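hi support,

uploading two proteins for the ticket. first:
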Amino acid sequence: MISPEWARVSKFGHDSAIVSDRRRLKLTGKDENWNKQYNHEMLFTKSIPPTLAIFAAASFSLAALDFRDAVIVVPTDATAREKKAALMVAEEVAKRTQIRLPIQTNGGGRATITIGRAGRLKGTLAGTTAGAEGFTLASSAEGSGTAAAVVTGKDDRGMIFGAGYLLRQFRMERQKLELAGGLRVTTTPATAVRGHQLGFRPKTNSYDAWDVAMWEQYIRELAIYGTNTIELLPPRSDDAPDSPHFPLKQIDMMVEMSRIADEYAIDVSVFYPALDHDYFDAKTVDFALKEWGEVFRRLPRIDAVFVPGGDPGDTPPKAMMPLLEKQTANLHKYHPKATMWMSPQGFSQKWMDDLEAILQTEPKWLTGIVFGPQVMYSLPELRARVPKRYPIRLYPDITHMMHAQYPTAEWDSVFPMTEGREIVNPRPLAQRAIFLSTRTQGNGFVAYSEGCHDDVNKMLWSALGWNPDADVRSILEDYSRFFLGPEVAVGFAEGLLALERNWTGALATNTGIDTTLQQFQAMERTATPARRANWRFLQPLYRAYYDAYLRGRLRTELDVEERAMDALRRAPQTGADTAVLRAETALYAASSTERTRELRQRVFELAEGLYQSIRMQLSVTRYQATAIGRGANLDAIDFSLNNREWLRARFAAIRATAKEAEKLAKIDEILQWTNPGPGGFYDDLGNPNQQPHLVRGTATYDADPDYRKSPLVGFSNRVPEISGARRSWYDHAEALYEGSLQMEYTGLDPAAQYKVRVVYGGDAIRIPIRLMANGDTEIHPMREKPQPVAPLEFPIPRAATANGKLRLAWTRPPGLGGNGRGAQVSEVWLIRVP
């Protein structure tokens, strides 16, 4: 008999009606009276969505069929892809079991695993009613004789996906290969395009070091999870021209990746930015046609080309669209059926208007529009403005954690300061919310990726693309079982969910971070040597240790800063210079403990393991990563987490002051920084726990994951460790695009005079900002933000607070487009003027 944890069909991550025991029936809400309900017959489960027809063998517990001595059977005249599917099964089984299954054209009386396309297989288990890219998986019933399993693909892709699904249903351990008996699963994907960008370029934090074998393995694993598209980048993009990690020239690796994708029947898209300065110039266009044409000629397979309007590139649509018409003809010389897509990323309102006018003429060469980061319209708005003949393909950013299309809610600023934008980032619940919020508006997705740190998110999107009703926990258990082994499937899945919870709320008080580490340490202690070398095991370990290290050090550094403040509070008694010296001594005291030193050491060990296993470059100095901001977060692990650098600059200014009274005044300014005085109010807008007057949106994260309807917390590019800024200046609240960032005050003194003090932080330092009161009173017009960052003060007209209320609203100039950022505010004091 098979174990309760194994005896179920995951349906690309979704529990089927096959359940092993009464406990699971109760947990899933299914009828416990399984015998009466199904009478041990093979019944069609009509309640399953039409994209996922399931046949279930009814039994309290399903017997396992033994395939240790099986052969893989392919048709006598097997095609190259039938052979590839069989080889994939044989190799993946061997890696996990030490069992080598021969591939042949007959069973010879042994247990068989038969793989082929519909119409090319014979037997009672063969055949499929699946649609395009779908398959049927069937296994013989218990006691029916020799064990048999058959994968029948509707087409080549269906066969590859079916073989991958079979691998995920096997229970594989050393010298063990089992499959539930009596299976009959027929399934067709719900989403037409299910893809991921795989850019072999210097800027990524791992991909640039992958050789051909590593790329084939990863593309194979994506196929096992139902991915039908990969997207490549050309040799010239917004990257450096070379990487010290490249095993091949970029164009040569593109050729290899295109070839590999074709062997697995996977589509190849090329993300091709238009980078030249002036495409109105005929010579520039001629150069681009020759450059792109050579790439088109070299690649054995191209099914689509996607040209972003920006990020990178900056080409107005009146020049872009004629260029793409010519490039489409250029593309069709070598790939006649390939399609052309473009996105209005970064377009201003003027450019959007120009694009809409062109689209109304419905150019036939254009296949569709892509919705990705930095599109100024929301997805529903874009769909309403684009002619219906053009499908919209999604380009979701599943790889970044800040300055991103879908930022993290309530992320403590310590994480972006240190772990950064491209950290190991399993976000299963958030990714499901993003997927579900976008799926009805497009024909599929090719997700944005900068490396393998988003691996869990990739597999999750592919699984949801196959079945949008799939249960997230089941997907994660499937992922954990297939890549790490059945014995850790449940625990590792829970660990991935716990890592997502690590990033919710204030770091200092999130005790769940320590629990998450304990969960992973328990799995670490019992891990086999193979699992300890498995990069998919090492990545979450790295995050769990890093998170716990940050929490331990933050708590210590906050205590250190408080001791420094205590020294400053005694300045009137000790004298200013003595107080500053004592405060500085306290501030620079050792901020580590034995525990944090051990955690830090383990982070570095895991970083080395990740470089050796999957070539993750987590340090510029150690692994020649491109930059700290490109995933090299090991180099940021010791950045100060308190106001040490800001205070050091303040201490220098105090020492340079001659008079004691002035020194004491400067010390008092430090101590009273957040004090708005009697009748006043203070908000640290980058801290979700200190935003009492921020007007929050009414939409939930599930309904508004890209924050089009709600303010969000954002982060500067200028890390306090380097810039010397206050911690409170590193983060901010912001509104995107045409939205306004609003604060509301009540209970004000109608007879009082007020002023507003504000710090304009953020990363969009060149974008002007305007402040209005109550919608009709200008507090200040569009103005530049001060550099370096410093507080500004503005009077509030008495009439604006005469009713005891005040609403402040900040906006950026309308119609800018770009990344939408600019209305960014770090700190606000509403001060009652004496």
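and the second one:
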Amino acid sequence: GSNWAWSKIYEPIIRQAAGLGRPPEDPDPDFYAQTFEHCDVLVAGAGPAGLAAALAAGEAGARVILADEQAEMGGSLLSDETSATIDGKAASAWRDEVLARLAALPNVRLLPRTQVFGYFAQNFLGLVEQCADHLAHPDAARPRERLWQVRAKRVVIATGAIERPLVFPGNDRPGVMLADAARVFATRYGALAGRRAVVVAATDTAYDAALALKDAGARIAVIADVRAAPGEAALAAAKAAGIDVKTSTTIFETKGRLRVSGVTLASVRDGSLSKGETIACDLVLMSGGWTPSVHLFSQSRGKVAWSAEANAFLPGPSAQAERSAGACRGTFALGDVLTEGWQAGAEAASIALGKPAGSHAFAVEAPPRSYAGMLGAMPMTGATQPAFVDFQHDVTTKDLKLAAQEGFRSIEHVKRYTTTGMATDQGKTSNLNAMAITAANTGKTIPEVGLTTFRQPYTPVTFGSLAGHNRGDLFDPVRRTPIHAWAEAQGAAFEDVGLWKRAHYFPRSGENAHEAVARECATVRSTAGVFDASTLGKIEVVGPDAAEFLERMYVNPWKKLEVGRCRYGVLLNEAGFIIDDGVVGRVATDVFHVTTTTGGAQRVLTMMEDYLQTEFPDLKVWLTSTTEQWAVIAVQGPKAREIIAPLVEGIDLSPAAFPHMALREGKICGVDTRLFRVSFTGELGFEINVPANAARGVWDRVWAEATKHGACAYGTESMHVLRAEKGFIIVGQETDGTVTPDDVGLTWAIGKNKRDFVGKRSLTRPDIVAPGRRQLVGLKTQNPKVTLEEGAQITASSAPKAGTQALGHVTSSYWSPALGSSIALALVADGRKRMGETLHVPMPDGAIAVELVSPVFVDPKGEKING
């Protein structure tokens, strides 16, 4: 009964009260831009420290980006109503002058409304600029947000500090807020947060808030200072304004229903409470001191260090080219902040430009203030109201106490158990108080408790900014070859291969897919076929050490490969498993044309770059992706040579001059070509590489010649059948990331005398050389009309029991027009030793008997490849 009442009555009411809304169903109507930028100095934060740093670096000639999340730059100076002066000017006037000087410098970019949200490796930072949210009627062509991806030589972190709440009973009641927030509302925006305020303070800056609100028309009922001895200047200013100050005083509890209506004070003496008077109010301002914003510094992998003097964690040893300045470094006095900012900017410019920067001495007059504050919870003996530590996740002191009782000692564990400092807060307001309370609960010091990890982003970033234009039709870009329009006009059926659209088959009138593929395969075997192979990945490997580089990457030997010759290459990962293959041609002594699988192009290039930069930096090699530059037209079949002969210039096509696995450079149809004599069908074959912008014209000429001989165009399905008839593997189909060269019969490709290559060591691991590994075989069904399903399991028994371990699985399966029967390739345990055995493929309608045969079904001696 109680469960029913909860689920049917109370839970819906509570969920509705929680304000959970419905997610939008329509697509985001806005668009988001992305841009890349380089600079000498990036300054994060445009408060007094950031302004000084940007001015020093900018006037030294450095390229500077100054970013600040606010619409106006100036930070604390925007709401500074004290009598502070800088170089004889009011703080606000000094700010305006500096911003004008910066705006006049062509080498300085000012980015207001821009949050530096992430500090990544090698001084790479992410920024999000709000471009349109502040506009009532933004231009439709204007992005809502812009993601800046900035690489900076040096970074100055001037992110300031965040006022710390006080932890006392009833501190989450509406009307309780941070003192400096109320001050900013009053001085910058002309808004009073309340008419009668109680200020509870542990730092002098709360007195500035009290004075500002009094000047704006509010009544300050009392300043309850937790400390026994406030700063003399702050205390004197409050008394001069007629504000009652009670020292060694805290709040025992708050009162009110919809918002605060009063507080009960308590005197603090030697850690014990003495309940005092109740004071009516509609606003409670609290200030526990200031927490330096070390988030960006921590994200840069710099190590923070505990400062007993500042009562906070401050930046320690750096890991990247950055420097913190101002309040984020624990420096709060205005004169010191400006000096520190200038020095950081000057030093950054000096290092970035390689020349000394100037200096500047600031003349600052400002009332003295104490900023130390306090940490942890205030004395709460006898209090019954909860005291909140994390206001975002409703974590109280009792939750932290329970975490200690449950045995959680690591602050990271406490964080996850209680959720304090998680999600968007990332410890901005709650962390130090939570650590101090945890330290008290566990009998440790705050440094022993430690600090939680600060992760990107510093503040939430929209998915729109991160995605940019990569959504909708642009989320997964469609790539089309130069021959696509021709294939489309021929009525080709297309399939997606990676990001490419590829012609799957070319049906003629009345043909279904099976009939079209059978016709294409038969035509290639008997006459010839033309195939668009432009999607093959192509990488130009150039340099005096190009052969040595390939020697280390691929299993094959390359140093003795003659210019004008090709070799089938196999690429492994460190575990010894095949991840790609392709034909590699030596164009010149120091130039190799490397082909990869269609889907592996980017992966292989990335892997090569990784090894070249991290493992083999001594090699003089340059890698260039040329996938888009070369279109490839494959002409395969007995008539292939006759088809291309009238079109080729400067290349002797005779078998003696141009043998199998050779390449020549010349012209075809007047266009420069790299002509490869290679075959993925087992027939005489040529692959014509021509510049992509000339490909359609060459294709049309080749097609015109092909039709004279009765050749056809064929698609990827026929290509699969033709290669399977020859036992050629496809990476990703015969391999699954756990297959070695020996498993698929490619041991012959491994250089016998090679000292090393990627994955070589792993090929000798016990599991790799152990008997019982699955090896590539061919399968012939006893009923030749039955075509197996790819992925089907293979067993010894025709009626295996549940739990029987399969011996292998079918990797490829087709109907073979050349044989007039079905064929299949499979990986079977000890397959090469089982030739001639009969195994079974269990299916719902009964097991299918198969005979293990050689994976080469057509032309086992390879005679057809020479035409």
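thanks. also noticed: The chain has a mean pLDDT of 94.
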